[in-house]
Amino acid sequence: MEAGQDDGMRIGELAEQAGVNPTTVRYYEDIGVLPEPDRTTAGYRRYSDADVDRLVFVRRSQQLGLHLDEIREILALREQGRRPCRFVVEVATHRLAEIDQRIAAMRCARDELADLLANTEPLDDDAGGYCQLIEHTQTSDG
Fold it and tell me: What Rg, from alpha-carbon coordinates, does the chain have?
């Protein structure tokens, strides 16, 4: 480390503390989720604890299903001194509806598969052709 440049952390340290890899940090900088960092006189990126907090927020938001453009909007509102709560509620409500739709689709797929399995006769691998389960799900080409 250079003399006079011991404050802050390098990209590897930031990535480790935030639970991401350095490539992700650079990507977030490129798309504006993470601000361009200060640099040392040698050109190394230098980050602060606030950058760690921001990356942890981004990761947690993604785990909840928010998209990067939505996260960027939340961060922009905060940086403007505005509370992003209304926007967050709108996004979370939309995301919850999407999850509910996926759960319903998965339940239908599960029920269909369970019905197919329940109505499949014992399998004979030596009979030729496809498995009855697959044949049952194929559509005819006319």
Answer: 25
Mean pLDDT of 125-132: 63
By the 10 Å C-beta count (0-12 exposed, 13-18 middle, 19+ buried), 34 is classed as: buried
45-46 and 38-39 strand pairing: antiparallel
* 8, 48 contact by CB (below 8 A): yes
Summarize pLDDT for 14-34 with one digit per residue, the tens: 999 999 999 999 999 999 999
Count, residues in the chain: 142
Q: Tens digit of pLDDT for each residue in 53-66?
A: 999 999 999 998 89
Cα angle 29, 33, 38; round to 5: 45
- For 58, 66, 67, 77, the CA distances from 94, given in Å and listed in that order, are 18, 10, 12, 19
User: What is the distance between the alpha carbons of residues 119 and 31, in angstroms, rounded to a whole number?
Assistant: 52
Nearest to 18 by CA among 46, 44, 54: 54
